[in-house]
Structures are given as structure tokens and as C-alpha cells.
């Protein structure tokens, strides 16, 4: 530790708190990845993959703990239990990340396949290990690229099976959740607008384009391009904002700005 | 010299005698020549003939020896060849002397002439100048002839100025450019021109000679000594004059004056100036009188372009056109003012609520306007294409300002095809239809026109009210030529249905004729759904007599056309009823199907309540109410009596036959199905249907474009789609966007991963 610079020491601390690893392992991983977190995490977790088939048995046991008595899936009760074990609120957004890793098809349920294969790919075979992984998963939301993947995944995950579009209420709930992380100032206005003017389900294109809109266009709409191939709904949203005086001359008059 | 010798060819003989070059002899000979020149100049005034001098062989021959010991034979004289060296020597010794002598002698005479000219008073100055110029020319000619040999030998080899040119140069330097003459000459010329411009008559012949003199002296003399100052002075003159005119004339008068001045200047040039000056002086007039005052003229209150257009002042307009086309931006100025005037008045016309009340009048006003400007452009503007285009674009602009224009144009056509063309000659019908097509071309929402046209045509065909089948077909052909087969295929289907129905009816009565002879006569028109405007089928209980007959027809028809479905459109159709009233009066009533159903009920009952009627006929209430109103509440047509006598139909009202009904006519028409201007809710409905129809068209266009381009960005796709649909309607970019999103939703298209503005076709 004495040979490390202050910045590097900070990184080691961070790494340790996120992964729960020892100092030695942390330094090793960081050194090997040239002091980049991304690479260090990959290295750290891939080592965990060198687990034997013994894990499958663990995972089966784990699955059985949460599995629904009448169906070969983990349903709402099982998930509640799982969250309890993890000491995480079921509404916590990190559960979305977990589902994403597991490639779960629909919210509030995990198939056996999804559960077991998903945990295996993460190199996890116990709740403790999963619990340890939670902080890392939270950090993944901070990564721009990963956030986009998770966000777009959320559409398919949150909608009803067999439906093409996402019900408005669910969409609003998801947006509230996701943009609490991402901090988009216009999210509340967006939701109000939808309830007042649109009142219909949300298409996939609108969902994915909204993230781009939040990313690219600044909250005061100073760089909004009306010819910018934005979905019609978003154009209407911009009109709504100007109509209601929320955006005036490129300034955002937001009286309900959440900090 | 004998004349015979003159005709002989040149002979070359050996030089026979030696050259004798004696300076004293040379001097003597020169003196003779000098004297000759004097004589020429001095005898000029007396008009002596110089043939004698010219023919003086002695003089000529001596001169001959002086210049060239080698005598050239000319006109019968001898040619001798001699030694070149000797020839040159003499040339250089005596030719020089001769030439310089000529110069000094001529100069002396010119200076004398100059003084004489200077001494002239007032008007005779020019005459004197002219006279002396004439003298000099004659003299110069003679001298040149005499010295022709020098001109052809000595002068070219020494590169001196030839005699004639020399004479002109000397005249120029000594007379025209002399201090006392140069300015005076210019001033006199300009003054005369000024006088002529103010209306005086001047001596044009004299002017022509003087000006010609300047021209003869060379282009630079003409330009420097006359043309340039002339143009400057003219510019000043016209600048002042145009300012005066414009303050006291109206536009038309000013243009007349300008045209007059222009013509005067052109005429002046033709009479006494160099033709090359024409373009220059006309430029000056154009600039000062027209270009500088263009905007002032066009916008002149109460007499400018707009007033001329309003009052059809063809002559003034034509004059303006011809004058303005001479100056830069002249025509575009006229065109722009005309365009904005047409747009303004057109906009007023189409947004005037008064005019909108009567669609036929509305369209007639449009046609009138078009005719007016057509006439102006052809009579006054020489059928200028750019003006035609400006007219067209203006019409296109304001016609589309009123969203009901397509409907009104269709109503106009309807009116004409119903009755307006009765008795009109075929060629005139074609004319009217062509004019309608012209207006049609201006419409941006051609699909709205199509919808209304279809509705109106259906009504015309079904009520048998069309005046001329040929006229109908002619218009359809024109629409087809303009818009393509798709536009008119359904319309043509309607005509086919009418014809087929006739054949069907014939077949029906041939088969059942005998059976049905005693019952009511049925005439059925079988309409193919899809070709005709969409109708919702409504309930209606037909009277039993009709029911049986209709069923018989239905089974007959389906017998020959299996697999089809027939539904009776009871909201259309008419019936002729023979009615006998209580007062013994008999009438033939022409009524609608609904009205027939209601009236037939009274064969079985004396009075009926509204509710009973409704129950029996099952006609929808709003239609039933309207129907009862037309039967009971309209003066002259009230075959039914209503209790109470109020105008509105209430659920508790009672109806009975009006036995006191009378009418002047034996045949009474009660229900007519005439194409009316739509009511507000109907209009909304039609518009909605049009919008709905547009959606699949937009989608089809998007798919077509994406299929061929594979990948395209947002702005380009909007532009392409708009262009493709232009001939039918103006596509709304917002609507196009919605269609694109719908296509993305249905996996026809996707957004590109990297560039969100790019769309990709999914096979």
C-alpha cells in the first residue's frame, strides 16, 4: 500500500467496498487492468467463474427456496422473500439490474432457467455472494452505456406478455424509478403531460427515444430541433411545455424541480 | 489621247530614255502643281470644271517624270520598266518635297477657310462650315486623283498618310478643332437639337451634313466632339423633363409622353445621326424617364398599375409593358406588383363570408377573375410566359386559403351539369369544363375535390338529373388526363353501374313483365359498393306492395349473380304516387322513399301519431322528423296535416291526410335530392373521412420509398413523401411522422442504431 499513490489508494478502497474483496486482491485486479475499474471488475468476477459444477447444486437449492409451490417459477412471493434475504426493497431499482443480468422476460417472475443460468453467469451461488454484488450492480446504473441497455431492456420486461406496447401507468412508474437515478428534470412534466394528453399505451420507439431525448436535449430545450426525427409524442410534449409556460425563451421555469 | 488607246491592255516596253533629274526642273514642276492646287481651291466657289486641268497632259506628264522616271501607263499610256535604284532615289528626293508641299499648301487654304467660317454670324455659321466642307471635299478628290500615283507608290513605301486621309486630318486639325470653331460648333448643334426637342422645326439636311462630316472624320471625332456631350446634355434634359412630368401627370399620360420622346429620339437618329447612336440615346431616355421613375409610376395613387389592372386599361398597360421591358427589372417590377395585387384581392374574395354563401357564385367570381387577367396578359403583356406563371402561382396561393374551395368547385360543376348547360352549344360546354379544370389544377387538396365530386355525381346519376351524358364523360376524361387512371376509375364504375342497371331492369321485366303488369313499377339501380360514396345502411320498413316486388327483384338478381349481397338504400330513391284526396282532387306526387313509406301508411289509417309512424316505418328519428316536416310543414306541399300546427316535430304530434290540399300543378314534387352545401357537422365528417383515407396513402408512399432506398434520413423521407403525394394533397409532416412511427411499431421500419435520424427498411 505504501508504494501506491493517493489516487490509487482511493481506487483500492472503492474497489474493496464494492466487491467486498481483500486489499491484496483489489490491488492485483486494479494493477492488472491498469487502474481502470471496468477491467478490474471483469477480472475479479471472471475469477469467480472458475467454480465447479458443485455450484449447480447450490443454485438448485437456492431456487427451490424461492420457487412457487404450484408453478415451476419464482413468482411474487418468492421474489419478496428473495428481496428480504438480500435486504433490499422489492421496489428498489437494483432489482431491475438483477433481472437484467438474469435476462428475465417479465417483471415479478423468474423462470428456473433464468434464475439458475443467470446466477451462474454472474458466478454467484449463494445469497451472501449476491448480496455482496448488489453495490456493484448499483454502480452499473451509473455507466452510460449500461444504463441505456438496462433502460431499453426495462420496456420488454415491464410490459404485459403478448402486448406490443407498455401500459401507461406501468410506464410512468418505471420512468419515475429510472429517472430518479438518471436525474432528468423534466420527468414529472413528462408524466403529467402523458396523463393529461395521451392516455394511451407507450410504444417501444417512444420509450427508447425518450432516453435519447433526455440525454441529448437540455432541459431548457435550447438545442431541441423540431426537424430532429423525434417521435410525434415528444414533439407534442415540447408544445405542451411551451403552452404551459414551463419553457419560456429557452429557460426552464420549473417550480416543482426535485433536487 | 485618243479614246481608242484607252481600251488597250497594259503594255510593257523597255525603258527608252534615261532619267533626267534636274532640281531646277523639279522646282519648276512643283510650282506648277502648287498653282494647280491653288486653282482648285480658288475655283471651287465658281464651280469651274476641273476636267480641263485634269486632262492637261503637260501637267500630268511633267508630274509623271518628277515622281517616277518610270512612267506608268494608265488609261492608254505607256508602262516602262526601269531601274529600281533610280526610281527610289527620285522618290526620296522629290516625293518628299511634293508631299510636304502638298501639306503646306492645303494647310494654307484650310486656314483661310477657317477664318471665313469663324467670321460667320449666328445661323450662317453652320451653313458656312457646311459649304466650305463641301468645297474641301471636292478639292480633295481632285487632288487625290492628280496625285494618285504618289498615293500608290511613294506613300505606301514611306508609310505616310494617304492623300485623302491627309486631307481629312488637316481639315480636322485646322478647322473643326480650331479654337474658335470647336466649341461653337458643338454648342450650335446641341442648341438646334434642344430647339427641336421643344417643338421647333430645324434644318435637318444641314444637320445631317454637319454630323456626317464629323462621322467622316473618324469615330473618335464623332464621339468626342459630338456624341459624348450630346448624351450628357440629353441625360440632363430628360432628367429635368421627367421630374416635371411626373409631378403633373398621371401614370398613363406620363407613359405616353415617355413613349413619344423615345420615338422622337429614334427618328432623330434615323434622320441625321450615326445609326450607332440609337442604342445609346435610347438608353439615356430609358434610364432618365423610365428606370429612375419606375416605382413611382407603378405605385402612383389613383393611376398606377393597380388602377390600370382594375379598370382593364389595356392600352396603358401595353404601353407600360413595352416601355418597362427596356429597362433592367422593369418587367419584374410590374410582375411583382401584379402578383401581390392578385393575391390580395384573391384572398379577400375567398375569405369573404358573403361570397362563401353561394358556392356557384363563388366559383363564377374566380373564373371571372381568371378571365380578366388572361385577357390583360394576352392583350397588354404579349402573352408573356412569366406573367402567366405569376398569375397561376397567385391563384394557387389564394384558392387554397379557403378549405372549402374543392367542395365549391364540385358544386359549381354540379350546378352546370344539372341545368346550367341546358341548351349550351357543345364547344361552349367544353370551354366551361376546361376553365373548371384550370381551377382544379390549382387545388392542393385534390382528394377532397374527388370525394365531393363523387358524392355530387352519385346524386346526379341516381336522380337522373344530369343534363348531358357527354358533358359528364368529357369532364371525367379531362380529370383522367390530369390525374391518372386511379382518380377516375371509380367514377367510371358509377357510369357502368347505371348502364348495367338499365340492362338488368330490361331483363327483369322481360322475364316477369306479364306478372307485374298490374302492380307498381319498379326501377332499380344496382350500385357496386366501393365505386359509390359510402353509405351506411339504415332501417326502413317498406310498404307491403313494394316489399314483395323488391324481393322478387332480389331473387331475380341473385339468380344471375350468385355470391353477391344486395342491400336496399332506403335513404335514397324516389317514388311517384297517385294520390286522391278527400276533396276529390287527384295529384301525382313525386316523393322520396321515406316519404312514400309514411304516406302509404295513411291508406290504412286516417290519422297516426308520430310514435305510431316511427314504429311502423322504423325510419331513424332525425330522418323521420325531416321527412314529416317536408310533408306537413311546407306551404304548397302540405299533403299531411299536423296537430299541433307548429313547425317542429314533437314526439306527441298527430298526423292526418290534408283533404284540403290543392296545388296548381297536377304533378307535385315534394322530396328532391339536390346537392347542397354541406352543413357544419357533415363537413366535419367528410373532412374526417378524407383524413382517414390519407393515412394509408401516406403509409404506402413511405413503404414504397423505403423499399427502394433501403436507408433514408428523416428530412429526406418527409420531402420525398410530400413530393409523391403532391398531386393529390399536401401531406402534413406531423402526420407523416405518425405514420412512420406506426410502421416502426409494425416492424416495417426501424431506426438505425448509431444515427437515430436514420430509418431502415426491414424486409
From TrEMBL, chain A:
Stored Pfam families: Cullin_binding (PF03556), UBA_4 (PF14555)
Alphabetized CDD domains for the sequence: UBA_DCNL
Any GO CC annotation of this UniProt entry: ubiquitin ligase complex
A Gene Ontology biological process term: protein neddylation
Entry's Gene Ontology molecular function annotations: cullin family protein binding; ubiquitin conjugating enzyme binding; ubiquitin-like protein binding
Domain DCUN1, first and last residues per copy: 54-242
Keywords: Ubl conjugation pathway
Described purpose of this protein according to its UniProt entry: Neddylation of cullins play an essential role in the regulation of SCF-type complexes activity.
Protein name from the UniProt record: Defective in cullin neddylation protein
Organism, scientific name: Salvia splendens (Scarlet sage)
Lineage start: Eukaryota, Viridiplantae, Streptophyta, Embryophyta, Tracheophyta
UniProtKB/TrEMBL annotation, chain B:
Organism in which the protein naturally occurs: Salvia splendens (Scarlet sage)
Protein's name according to its UniProt entry: Cullin family profile domain-containing protein
SUPFAM superfamilies: Cullin homology domain (SSF75632), Cullin repeat-like (SSF74788), Winged helix' DNA-binding domain (SSF46785)
Domain Cullin family profile: 404-632
Source species, domain of life: Eukaryota
Similarity-based family: Belongs to the cullin family.
Gene Ontology biological-process entries: ubiquitin-dependent protein catabolic process
Keyword annotations: Isopeptide bond, Ubl conjugation, Ubl conjugation pathway
GO molecular function, one term: ubiquitin protein ligase binding
Organism lineage string: Eukaryota, Viridiplantae, Streptophyta, Embryophyta, Tracheophyta
Coiled coil location: none
Amino acid at each position: 500500500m505504501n508504494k501506491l499513490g493517493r489516487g490509487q489508494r482511493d481506487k483500492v478502497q472503492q474497489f474493496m467496498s464494492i466487491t467486498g474483496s481483500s486489499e491484496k486482491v483489489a490491488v492485483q485486479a486494479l494493477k492488472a487492468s491498469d487502474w481502470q475499474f471496468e477491467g478490474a471488475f471483469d477480472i475479479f468476477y471472471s475469477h469467480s467463474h472458475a467454480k465447479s459444477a458443485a455450484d449447480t447444486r447450490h443454485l438448485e437449492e437456492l431456487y427451490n427456496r424461492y420457487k412457487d409451490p404450484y408453478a415451476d417459477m419464482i413468482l411474487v412471493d418468492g421474489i419478496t422473500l428473495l428481496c428480504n434475504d438480500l435486504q433490499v426493497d422489492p421496489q428498489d431499482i437494483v432489482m431491475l439490474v438483477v433481472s437484467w443480468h438474469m435476462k428475465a422476460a417479465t417483471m415479478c417472475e423468474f423462470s428456473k432457467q433464468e434464475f439458475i443460468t443467470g446466477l451462474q453467469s454472474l458466478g454467484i451461488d449463494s445469497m451472501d455472494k449476491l448480496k455482496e454484488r448488489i453495490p456493484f450492480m448499483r454502480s452499473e446504473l451509473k455507466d452510460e452505456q449500461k444504463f441505456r441497455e438496462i433502460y431499453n431492456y426495462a420496456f420488454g420486461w415491464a410490459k404485459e406478455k403478448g402486448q406490443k406496447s407498455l401500459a401507461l401507468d406501468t410506464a410512468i412508474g418505471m420512468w419515475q424509478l429510472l429517472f430518479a437515478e438518471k436525474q432528468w428534470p423534466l420527468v414529472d412534466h413528462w408524466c403529467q403531460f402523458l396523463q393529461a394528453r395521451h392516455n394511451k399505451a407507450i410504444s417501444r420507439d417512444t420509450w427508447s427515444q425518450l432516453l435519447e431525448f433526455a440525454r441529448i436535449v437540455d432541459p431548457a430545450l435550447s438545442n431541441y430541433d423540431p426537424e430532429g426525427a423525434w417521435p410525434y409524442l415528444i414533439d407534442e410534449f415540447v408544445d405542451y411545455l411551451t403552452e404551459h409556460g414551463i419553457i419560456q425563451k429557452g429557460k426552464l421555469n420549473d417550480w416543482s424541480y426535485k433536487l | 489621247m485618243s479614246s481608242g488607246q484607252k481600251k488597250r491592255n497594259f503594255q510593257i516596253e523597255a525603258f527608252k530614255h534615261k532619267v533626267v533629274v534636274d532640281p531646277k526642273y523639279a522646282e519648276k514642276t512643283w510650282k506648277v502643281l502648287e498653282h494647280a492646287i491653288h486653282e482648285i481651291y480658288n475655283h471651287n466657289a465658281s464651280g469651274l470644271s476641273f476636267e480641263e486641268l485634269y486632262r492637261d497632259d503637260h501637267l500630268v506628264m511633267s508630274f509623271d517624270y518628277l515622281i517616277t522616271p518610270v512612267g506608268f501607263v494608265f488609261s492608254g499610256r505607256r508602262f516602262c520598266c526601269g531601274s529600281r535604284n533610280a526610281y527610289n532615289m527620285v522618290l526620296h528626293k522629290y516625293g518628299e518635297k511634293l508631299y510636304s508641299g502638298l501639306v503646306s499648301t492645303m494647310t494654307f487654304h484650310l486656314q483661310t477657310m477657317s477664318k471665313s467660317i469663324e467670321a460667320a454670324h449666328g445661323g450662317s455659321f453652320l451653313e458656312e462650315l457646311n459649304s466650305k466642307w463641301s468645297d474641301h471635299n471636292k478639292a480633295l478628290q481632285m487632288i487625290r486623283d492628280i496625285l494618285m500615283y504618289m498615293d500608290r507608290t511613294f506613300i505606301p513605301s514611306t508609310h505616310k498618310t494617304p492623300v485623302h486621309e491627309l486631307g481629312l486630318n488637316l481639315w480636322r486639325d485646322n478647322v473643326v478643332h480650331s479654337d474658335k470653331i470647336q466649341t461653337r460648333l458643338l454648342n450650335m448643334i446641341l442648341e438646334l437639337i434642344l430647339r427641336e426637342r421643344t417643338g421647333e422645326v430645324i434644318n435637318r439636311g444641314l444637320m445631317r451634313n454637319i454630323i456626317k462630316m464629323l462621322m467622316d472624320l473618324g469615330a473618335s471625332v464623332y464621339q468626342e466632339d459630338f456624341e459624348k456631350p450630346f448624351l450628357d446634355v440629353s441625360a440632363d434634359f430628360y432628367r429635368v423633363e421627367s421630374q416635371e412630368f411626373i409631378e403633373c401627370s398621371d401614370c398613363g399620360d406620363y407613359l405616353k409622353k415617355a413613349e413619344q420622346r423615345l420615338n422622337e429620339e429614334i427618328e432623330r437618329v434615323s434622320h441625321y445621326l450615326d445609326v450607332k447612336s440609337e442604342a445609346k440615346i435610347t438608353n439615356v431616355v430609358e434610364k432618365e424617364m423610365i428606370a429612375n421613375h419606375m416605382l413611382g409610376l407603378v405605385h402612383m395613387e389613383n393611376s398606377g398599375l393597380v388602377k390600370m389592372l382594375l379598370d382593364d386599361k389595356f392600352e396603358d398597360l401595353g404601353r407600360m409593358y413595352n416601355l418597362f421591358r427596356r429597362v433592367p427589372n422593369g418587367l419584374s417590377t410590374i410582375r411583382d406588383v401584379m402578383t401581390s395585387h392578385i393575391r390580395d384581392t384573391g384572398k379577400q374574395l375567398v375569405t369573404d363570408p358573403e361570397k362563401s354563401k353561394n358556392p356557384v357564385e363563388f366559383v363564377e367570381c374566380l373564373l371571372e377573375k381568371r378571365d380578366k387577367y388572361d385577357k390583360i396578359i394576352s392583350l397588354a403583356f404579349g402573352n408573356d410566359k412569366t406573367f402567366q406563371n405569376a398569375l397561376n402561382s397567385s391563384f394557387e396561393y389564394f384558392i387554397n386559403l379557403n378549405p372549402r374551395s374543392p367542395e365549391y368547385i364540385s358544386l359549381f360543376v354540379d350546378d352546370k351539369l344539372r341545368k346550367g348547360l341546358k341548351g349550351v352549344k357543345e364547344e361552349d360546354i367544353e370551354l366551361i369544363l376546361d376553365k373548371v379544370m384550370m381551377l382544379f389544377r390549382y387545388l392542393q387538396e385534390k382528394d377532397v375535390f374527388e370525394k365531393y365530386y363523387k358524392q355530387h355525381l352519385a346524386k346526379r346519376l341516381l336522380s337522373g338529373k344530369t343534363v348531358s351524358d357527354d358533358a359528364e364523360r368529357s369532364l371525367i376524361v379531362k380529370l383522367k388526363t390530369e390525374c391518372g387512371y386511379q382518380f377516375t376509375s371509380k367514377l367510371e364504375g358509377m357510369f357502368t353501374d347505371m348502364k348495367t342497371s338499365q340492362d338488368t331492369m330490361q331483363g327483369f321485366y322481360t322475364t316477369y313483365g306479364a306478372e307485374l303488369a298490374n302492380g307498381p313499377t319498379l326501377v332499380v339501380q344496382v350500385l357496386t359498393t366501393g365505386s359509390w360514396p359510402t353509405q351506411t345502411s339504415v332501417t326502413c320498413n317498406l310498404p307491403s306492395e313494394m316489399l314483395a316486388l323488391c324481393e322478387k327483384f332480389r331473387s331475380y338478381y341473385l339468380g344471375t349473380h350468385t355470391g353477391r349481397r344486395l342491400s336496399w338504400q332506403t335513404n335514397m330513391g324516389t317514388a311517384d304516387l297517385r294520390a286522391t284526396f278527400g276533396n276529390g282532387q287527384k295529384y301525382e306526387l313525386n316523393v322520396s322513399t321515406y316519404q312514400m313509406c309514411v304516406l302509404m301508411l295513411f291508406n290504412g289509417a286516417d290519422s297516426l301519431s308520430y310514435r305510431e309512424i316511427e314504429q311502423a316505418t322504423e325510419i331513424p328519428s332525425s330522418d323521420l322528423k325531416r321527412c314529416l316536416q317536408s310533408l306537413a310543414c311546407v306551404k304548397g306541399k302540405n299533403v299531411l296535416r299536423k296537430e299541433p300546427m307548429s313547425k317542429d316535430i314533437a314526439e306527441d304530434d298527430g298526423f292526418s291526410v290534408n283533404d284540403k290540399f290543392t296545388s296548381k300543378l297536377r304533378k307535385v314534387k315534394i322530396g328532391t335530392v339536390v346537392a347542397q352545401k354541406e352543413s357544419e357537422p357533415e363537413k366535419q365528417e367528410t373532412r374526417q373521412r378524407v383524413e382517414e383515407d390519407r393515412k394509408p396513402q401516406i403509409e404506402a408512399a413511405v413503404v414504397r420509398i423505403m423499399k427502394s432506398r433501403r436507408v433514408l434520413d428523416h428530412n429526406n423521407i418527409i420531402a420525398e413523401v410530400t413530393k409523391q403525394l403532391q398531386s393529390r394533397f399536401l401531406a402534413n409532416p406531423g402526420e407523416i411522422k405518425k405514420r412512420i412511427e406506426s410502421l416502426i411499431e409494425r416492424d416495417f421500419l426501424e431506426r438505425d442504431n448509431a444515427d437515430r435520424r436514420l430509418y431502415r427498411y426491414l424486409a
